[in-house]
């Protein structure tokens, strides 16, 4: 009986081996490139999506100033505020003001104004200093 089963088992395995997936020809370079372009296009954000993302989250920017100070600024867009921390560990919460162009945040005599990567930092009792965003 063992002699009869072994040929049947081997024969069954041979038949099952033919039931596997059929091999397809590899994709052409053009097909691979087209899929890559489609994937990139699907991930690309529209201008409205980028603006919505910036308006609804906190954005951190680091500035280096002419007087040697390093400012870390958390722009809290949903609350219309900015928290400025200097290299001495001092922090100030500033409130957004309407600017004709660029940014303007202030609280009392402390303010941060700027456009693009340039800003002017004014702190109580200190001279104004020019700063440049590095992050």
UniProtKB/TrEMBL annotation:
Residues 63-129 form the C-type lysozyme inhibitor domain. It holds the Pfam family MliC. Signal peptide: none annotated. Keywords: Lipoprotein, Membrane, Palmitate, Signal. It comes from the Bacteria. This is C-type lysozyme inhibitor domain-containing protein. It comes from Brevundimonas subvibrioides (strain ATCC 15264 / DSM 4735 / LMG 14903 / NBRC 16000 / CB 81).
